[in-house]
């Protein structure tokens, strides 16, 4: 379904690729492909481009005549300058630290939900995800060996084209604070920046030279609460996490993240850098539950990827025998 | 008086007889008739159960699939039942629910979802009927199908190979009488039971949605396994209904300790908004939806303004 808008024409001041062929085109930041825009809904004009990456590029509630291709901002038509926002979105990599003991569908959902949210703000494009299982020396109860947890995460991510597992943290000689893991991955990220963009439809699509990728800590909103636990986190580290990196916190039942933020001066100061995401599908699934179910011989199918379940059975993990 | 040494057996016994007497040594002892009852239970086949789930499955989600797993663990765990099969029966298009897409797609998605399951399968009978079929009739159809196939000595119903006490007993029985195993006629036919969530149980209260006699027959003749988070509400609902209360022994409430709120409605909403449904539905289902562009604001408008088939039918019959 395409719209031939008389308002959107050559003289409208919009980039050439917007009105090409009389229909709306847009650029998917992930695939770097120019796609035609589909308009869905009667009241809301949501343009969904590039089904593969499910990028929502503009979300506007306006009568059709006033439609303007500008991400997530309501604007009237003619006369308003449309900045080339698509290309100046900040690239983001999401880093999730945790035990992943074992990894579950809930962990994987965190990434999907966080990515959708960041894209819909119009300010970011998520270019990758990293799962970093914690070091064995964390000494959490029932923690199985790191190489198993890494292997399970790898199996779980076999079918994902943007999330990967990184064993660096688990391979260090000792446990390390989250902020150090962030620092490591951030420097790795900067080091691996692509120099040029691939062949595209014109220079309009090249990455703006100032768009440095950001690494954000992805976690459940309950982590915000743990900031209050005395001696669990260093104050300086909390500040560095929210100031230099940023957080994406996915809400879980029973937690009110806004409360945690307002209860802390540091978090309040950098709350613009703490993205609170509401997961519409309430899911109390946790690794603890999985471990208990497994030790009682109950089925965990459809709670974690089949490949992970097979691995657990083959290696006799979580059978309930004390380790 | 027989002393039972195996702790597990003792549990089963107390389930079966419900009456416990102790001698001076504190050992549980039983009267003769109770012993016979217990021995019969131990030696006979546990009641084989087929779980039947009816619904729109529009689309099927991981939550639907979890219902089966939870129900099987529960029923097998009682020691009285053995779940041998799970059946997903998507409703026909004639149900006329809002947003219901073609049965053809829903059936394929359910089949993709159960591709990797050893015991859950999809049945298309209901979806192929021209008119909407009451749930009771679907239950009856499947029970009759089981009865028909159990007369055939060559049973091909899938059995779960589960090691444990049952197999030991089976092996011991072989010493006593090979004949028993060769005479399937003496074996009970598996029983079909309706598997559902609490929403279906509570929909019994919606006027004209269900026929009262149907509800009675479903819980009386077949049985209900209801997976619920809010066990108290479901119990209260049963308590407040004479028909359900009468057959409460045939209604099994299974507690879902973790909230797993993956409803098809939310999936469709997420799809309309371009949000990811990964890890909420099986990957094959997600790919199928994407490939065929199944859910959109247009598809959600289907059957708007049309009266739901059961409401139409029951109201018409009430007025006739």
List the topology elements.
The complex is a heterodimer of chains A (323) and B (320).
Chain A: H1 16-19, E1 25-27, E2 34-36, E3 38-40, E4 45-49, E5 55-60, E6 90-98, H2 105-121, E7 124-133, H3 146-156, E8 163-165, H4 168-171, H5 178-191, E9 214-220, H6 222-226, H7 235-245, E10 247-250, H8 257-262, H9 265-269, E11 274-277, H10 287-295, H11 306-314
Helix pairs in contact in A: 3-11
Chain B: H1 7-17, E1 21-22, E2 28-29, H2 32-43, E3 47-55, H3 62-78, E4 81-90, H4 103-113, E5 120-122, H5 125-128, H6 135-150, H7 165-176, H8 178-182, E6 191-197, H9 198-203, H10 212-222, E7 224-228, H11 231-239, H12 242-246, E8 251-255, H13 264-272, H14 283-292, H15 297-300, H16 309-319
Parallel strand pairs in B: 3-4, 3-6, 4-5, 6-7, 7-8
Antiparallel strand pairs in B: 1-2
Helix pairs in contact in B: 1-2, 4-14
Question: Would you give an account of this structure?
Answer:
The complex is a heterodimer of chains A (323) and B (320). Chain A has 323 residues and is an alpha/beta fold. Chain A contains eleven helices and eleven strands. Chain A has helices at 16-19, 105-121, 146-156, 168-171, 178-191, 222-226, 235-245, 257-262, 265-269, 287-295, 306-314; strands spanning 25-27, 34-36, 38-40, 45-49, 55-60, 90-98, 124-133, 163-165, 214-220, 247-250, 274-277. Chain A has a six-stranded parallel β-sheet, sandwiched between helices. A three-stranded antiparallel β-sheet of chain A has the order 3-4-5. Chain A has a two-stranded antiparallel ribbon with strand order 1-2. The N and C termini of chain A lie far apart (60 Å). Helix content of chain B is 48%, strand content 13%. Chain B has helices at 7-17, 32-43, 62-78, 103-113, 125-128, 135-150, 165-176, 178-182, 198-203, 212-222, 231-239, 242-246, 264-272, 283-292, 297-300, 309-319; strands at 21-22, 28-29, 47-55, 81-90, 120-122, 191-197, 224-228, 251-255. In chain B, α1 (7-17) crosses α2 (32-43) and α4 (103-113) packs antiparallel against α14. The model of chain B is unreliable at 1-19 and 176-186 (pLDDT under 50).
